[in-house]
Amino acid sequence: MLESNKDSAKLDAMKRIVGMIAKGRNASELFPAVVKNVASKNIEIKKLVYVYLVRYAEEQQDLALLSISTFQRALKDPNQLIRASALRVLSSIRVPIIVPIMMLAIKDASADLSPYVRKNAAHAIQKLYSLDPEQKEMLIEVIEKLLKDKSTLVAGSVVMAFEEVCPERIDLIHKNYRKLCNLLVDVEEWGQVVIIHMLTRYARTQFVSPWKEDGGAEDSEKNFYESDDEQREGTERRKKPYAMDPDHRLLIRNTKPLLQSRNAAVVMAVAQLYWHISPKSEAGVISKSLVRLLRSNREVQYIVLQNIATMSIQRKGMFEPYLKSFYVRSTDPTMIKTLKLEILTNLANEANVSTLLREFQTYVRSQDKQFAAATIQTVGRCASSISEVSDSCLSGLVCLLSSRDEVVVAESVVVIKKLLQMRPAQHGEIIKHMAKLLDSITVPVARASILWLIGENCERVPKIAPDVLRKMAKSFTSEDDLVKLQILNLGAKLYLTNSKQTKLLTQYILNLGKYDQNYDIRDRTRFIRQLIVPNEKSGALSKYAKKIFLAQKPAPLLESPFKDRDHFQLGTLSHTLNTKAAGYLELSNWPEVAPDPSVRNVEVVELTKEWTPAGKAKKENPAKKFYSESEEEEDSSDSSSESESESGSESEEEADSSEDSSASSPNEQEGESASESEGRSKRTAKKSWKTRAKSDSEDEEKENEKSKSSDSSSAESSSAEGSSSDAESESESDSGPDSRKVTKEKEGRPKQARSTLPKDVSLLDLDDFNSVSTPVALPTPVLSPSLRADLEGLNLSTTSSVINVSSPVFVPMKTHVLLHRMSGKGLAAHYFFPRQPCIFGAKMVSVQITLNNTTDQKIENIHVGEKKLPAGMQMHAFSPVDSLEPEGSVTVSMGIDFCDSTQTASFQLCTKDDCFSVNIQPPVGELLLPVAMSEKDFKKEQGMLTGMNETSALIVATPQDFTPSVILQKVVNVANVGAVPSGQDHLHS
Amino acid sequence: MIHSLFLINSSGDIFLEKHWKSVVSRSVCDYFFEAQERATEAENVPPVIPTPHHYLLSVYRHKIFFVAVIQTEVPPLFVIEFLHRVVDTFQDYFGVCSEPVIKDNVVVVYEVLEEMLDNGFPLATESNILKELIKPPTILRTVVNTITGSTNVGDQLPTGQLSVVPWRRTGVKYTNNEAYFDVIEEIDAIIDKSGSTITAEIQGVIDACVKLTGMPDLTLSFMNPRLLDDVSFHPCVRFKRWESERILSFIPPDGNFRLLSYHVSAQNLVAIPVYVKHSISFRDSSALGRFEITVGPKQTMGKTIEGVLVSSQMPKGVLNMSLTPSQGTHTFDPVTKMLSWDVGKINPQKLPSLKGTMSLQAGAPKPDENPTVNLQFKIQQLAISGLKVNRLDMYGEKYKPFKGIKYMTKAGKFQVRT
Q1: CA angle A50, A51, A56 (to 5 degrees)
Q2: At B158, is the pLDDT very low, low, confident or very high (cuts 50, 70, 90)?
Q3: Whose CA is closest to A627, among A694, A568, A684?
Q4: Percentage of chain B surpassing pLDDT 90?
Q5: Rounded to an integer, what distance in angstroms lies between the CA atom of residue A173 and that of residue A171?
Q6: Partner residue facing A157 (CB), from B15, B121, B245
Q7: Are B325 and B341 contacting, i.e. CB atoms less than 8 angstroms apart?
Q8: Of the residues A65, A671, B316, B377, which has the fewest C-beta atoms closer than 10 A?
Q9: Can you give the CATH number for the domain in which B222 is found?
Q10: Is B173 contained in some domain?
């Protein structure tokens, strides 16, 4: 039929063939006939041929080559979907000969204009890799290229390829990290799962742990590294003593909405991300979503419950509010029931254990006996972990001993045995009760447990034990091996403690054991006999027999089976199986010190713009401006005209910033028009603000619309003007001597411009500074006043400002004891930091010491004796005090250079008769010097502080005190700092 | 990722196999059969089974096991969720997902599977896109196809996949434009012996059937959105709008879809609309037990309770039951020991009851647990949580759509312990 001319006949034939394939029957002998149809016009036939081809090409490699040319032709098709499907099938044919062709096709496709084709290229990468791993290097190049892709369509697939081909090349992610975080919400759900898993691993290698509560010192270098970003984080970060990397925060924040996904895999992926990389205080948000997943199918429940079980061991509090969601229903499958039980046990604490135990009572009576047995074990675990209820648990378990169901009784016996072993208090009654049960119970484990228990406690039940042994001796031959071993043990123990009554019995049992079928039992018998029965040859060991048999045995620990799973990444197959699955990528531990965070910055040019003064100047503008701008992200072509929609003063600053950026980025081409560079810098800014802007976008949109419409007419004219001046500045930068003329021209222009439109100033100024950045000397006298002001601004921000020491804002009167009067034989010394510049040296901190004489005699010649200072430290001693009258006091001052450290300065305080060792340790706050500077300078300095020590102190502020002045007061209380006049409503101190 | 897929029926036959990478021999399923044998019930087959070289992940739905074979580490939920999506798609395509239907439509199934996964990684899972690629078989189309020789493979290409709203087809046209929303709430509850509630929570969904022309942009607002404790959305819902304004704003997919599912937590006291009075007793001496059950309304807010179905798994010792219902019909299966009683509507004046005796196995000890009673019921025109839709607005299109909202309350996992 395949040879038929009619499409319908061919189609029918193909359908039958596919039916055969589906059933798993071999249809490979039809290969030549089918391949002929690969070029069929009919789409359905074509598709079915593809299905066939992909299935059998591996087996019929030579014939498969016949079809290749068709695909090669299709790869050039103008329709993107045909290109994509051709690539898909071509890469699915697993024929090693065509590897070069595939490689070529992938390379072409990865540069395709259509994101859909690029997506398929990403898929093809994995296929080619599995076919020929030697292509790895080439494929990594393609992956690198595709990772840069900005389409959401591609992101998921390429990360998948990355994970498959080169998961170790984490360096490829750096540059794309922020982009991936921002795109994440829009990627299709399957891609989200893959990306989130990859980013979790990435975060674990690139950020420091947010879990250390007091990790201030080692994270300090990151604290200041990007002032811009810090700003973005706003207040939420400032509350915490630990400063999280902003990129780290970005990831956590951007994944949060995905908890609302309908796809369980996505929710689980986010949950594991939060579990593994977010601060512990924030991980709580995932519990609600995970509990929601419990409503879904049994398989999803199973996996989710497993993960919750692992989580609930470590952080009980997370799931405690949802305790009731884990109550078992009689219709749940057994595996779900036991998992729920496991979680309930993990969640049990003093507060809820009584409710839980009541719930367990219902479970114990369940018809599902396996589950009932599991419940009994659970009760045992509760009893062992929560001591308050252990007695009631025990009595409850003893009640169960009278249950009619054998499984329940047996399990209870085993659990009681474990519990009793843990608390070897007087439980003679229970043991006696259990000894009676021996007649009725048949389950070997339970019988063995009872025997063991009696053996262990044989001294407490001296009457019953021999009797039990007698009974057992009678039934020895019919017992299970497990029980037999315990009978032997019991016999041995009794022989040692009560040989008078049991000697014969034991020997009888040993004789029976000697001829048992099981060699284990024969061995044990021989061993025991040698050990306990005294004979002439008995070795040294028999002396210790009693010690060996009746030693204190450590109680077994009743632990959760999920205890050891936490070293696997949650939500992975390995975690579910509790073994390492093939291809499992270990989640690394947090690095001690974070790797360089700047690697994630995008593009060198943008980088400087983002993080150098450009960013800083931007900050000073009211944040609103960014919001409104970022709205218009799509039409970046408008960006230049849009800049004019700002008010005059703002755009001046704006100009400032882009000047700085263009000055500080030498890689930028000088020929580039100024307005363009401005636009670009703005775009970068937009990018960085995008995330935050989104949230407010609704309100801002209207505002922006309004301002745009009002300004649009003026904007056009000004932008035209701007571009004309661009041309000028370009030419001027080449010809130095001309510059005078040009600037003159400009001098006139701003005035004219200002009369009509204040915005023009910024544009023109910008041009000027473009020329400044080129080595052209601009004669200052000719500059217009506005220009000069701008120049000054530029100077200020590039050269380091002079340090003006300001007077302390506040001097605390708190004094510290240097020498107590008791240890100082009546001489008392107190010191405090007056926060004055030290007169002895610029680097020294002044310390005032008040000496008191509490004796009734004169103390003479008080001076500083031997100094024991750490290296580098210097001290200027106070001048000796000749004599101090009784009840008199004198204040002296000295200077100590603490080398900016909090090391202790030790020295001896000597009087005429005695020497006292004293030491001064300065609080960090006292080592500082308040400096007067503008906010702008402050920001700059802050930016330069990267790598310096940061110290933090906790300031307790009640909520009603939350005004700047109060906080300021509290801050200056602990540290000698000054307040920076700030335009924003938060404090830099 | 996903290497191969096997479909296995309840009698243990592999009736369909599909491979996305190189072929995996079907003998790999032997491990699955082993596990199936060990687990007495189909429900207890573990979803993840490790074998020496592969891992088998399975879901069990409609009496069919969907077994995916994977070779390397992959998030298990990823595979499981995907398999469920496959089943949903089949259901969407063929109405029911059963062995004969799949066998009949094996070619379509194969084509769909081919599109859903590429090299084991999900490619197109949105049913709107798939339907554009491969048209679902209808009787009319089969007739037309046989006559004209045209195919059920879409000749247009999946443009939806390329658009910003991948869940919606382009060029949708209807003469009657309508949008229906069903607010369905399910009560999950455990009631203890004495009639007091142990746990109760409400799980709700809003299912939509939207047949609107063009690219409509809808907003749906609630009177009391604060009720919703935890929500999950269809990807079309704009999350930011919800965060800031508690409004559902979305461009809907075409046809049926689940817009939202939500959870009303146990903190808000859940009204339980029914009560069950029961007295089930086994006596030690005699081989007879007494059985009596009465169902009555409680907190129904004036609505009638319909579709009541009481079912209970009796203990193994029960041989047979002779019962008389005051209304409805009852059956007892002596093999599975399943009692079910189809009550129908509850009339508050004359409460339905089921009375009678159970005959127990002679000599066997009396069962220590009384059976739990599972309840199903329906209440029309009521959302038990009190959730109310305020209004539905449409933007972006000119015409006036027909809008409708329906409320319903159902029993979810509603158990009464006796």
Answers
A1: 95
A2: low
A3: A694
A4: 11
A5: 5
A6: B121
A7: yes
A8: A671
A9: 2.60.40.1170
A10: no
A41 touches chain B (CB under 8 A): no
User: From the CA of A82, how many Å to the nearest CA of chain B?
Assistant: 8
Helices A7-23 and B106-116: angle between axes, nearest 10 degrees: 80
Partner residue opposite B372 with nearest CB, options A80, A261, A330:
A330
For residue B78, give the chain A residue with the closest CA. Answer: A265
Instruction: Say if A298 is an interface residue toward chain B (CB within 8 Å).
Output: yes
Q: What burial class does residue A139 get, using C-beta atoms within 10 Å of its C-beta: 0-12 exposed, 13-18 middle, 19+ buried?
A: buried
Residue among A740, A720, A724 at smallest CA distance from A732: A740
Contact check, Cβ <8 Å, B121/A123:
yes
pLDDT at B25: 84
Q: How many residues does chain B have?
A: 418
Is the CB of B107 less than 8 angstroms away from the CB of A576? Answer: no
* A248-300 pLDDT per residue, tens: 888 888 888 888 888 889 999 999 888 888 888 888 888 888 888 888 888 89
Q: Are residues B102 and B124 in the same domain?
A: yes
If asked whether residues B21 and B140 sit together in one domain, one would say yes
A70 vs A34, A36, A55, A75, A463, CA distance in Å?
Answer: 14, 11, 18, 9, 94
pTM for the predicted model, two decimal places: 0.67
What is the predicted pLDDT for the residue at A928?
A: 60
Structural domain count of chain B: 3
Q: How confident is the model at residue B67 (pLDDT cuts 50, 70, 90)?
A: very high
pLDDT tens figures, A589-635? 777 776 777 777 765 433 333 343 433 333 344 444 444 444 444 44
B184 pLDDT higher than 90: yes
Q: What strand order describes the sheet that includes B306-313? A: B230-233, B255-264, B197-211, B178-191, B402-416, B373-380, B306-313, B338-344, B329-333
Largest CA distance in chain B: 78
Nearest chain A residue (CA) to B145 = A8
Query: Does A980 have pLDDT greater than 50?
Result: no
Residues B309 and B243 in one domain: no
Query: pLDDT at position A292, please?
Result: 84
- At A282 the pLDDT is 81
For A762-791, letters b (16+ CB in 10 Å) and e give: bbbbbbbbbbbbeebebeeeebbebbeebb
Task: Report the distance separating Cα A969 and Cα A987, nearest Å.
Answer: 12
Provide DSSP, B261-330: EEEE-TTSPPPP-EEEEEEEEE-SSSSEEEEEEEEEE-S-TTPPPEEEEEEEE--TTEEEEEEEESSSEE
Note whether B358 and B318 are within 8 A (CB): yes
Sign of the CA dihedral running B7, B12, B14, B19: positive
Q: Is the dihedral of CA A951, A957, A959, A965 positive or negative?
A: negative
Domain that holds residue B43: 2-148
Residue A740 identity (one-letter amino acid): R
pLDDT at site A783: 40
Interface TM-score (ipTM) > 0.85: yes
Q: Which domains does chain A have, with CATH numbers?
A: 7-206 (1.25.10.10), 462-553 (no CATH), 816-926 (2.60.40.1150), 930-940+952-988 (no CATH)
| Residue in the structure block whose two tokens are 């020997």 | A507
Q: Kindly tell me if the per-residue pLDDT of A869 is higher than 80.
A: no
Q: Which helix (H) or strand (E) holds A14?
A: helix A7-23
Contact (Cβ atoms closer than 8 angstroms) between residue A660 and residue A739 = no
Contacts of A344 (CB under 8 A, 6+ apart): A323, A326, A327, A356, A359, A378
* Mean model confidence pLDDT for chain A: 69
Report d(CA A107, CA A135) in Å as an integer. Answer: 12
Residues B102 and B6 in one domain: yes
Contacts of A7 in chain B (CB under 8 A): 149
Other Cβ atoms within 10 Å of A239 Cβ, number:
6
* Alpha carbon of B70: minimum distance to chain A alpha carbons (Å): 10
* Per-range mean pLDDT, top range of A197-211, A225-239, A716-730: A197-211
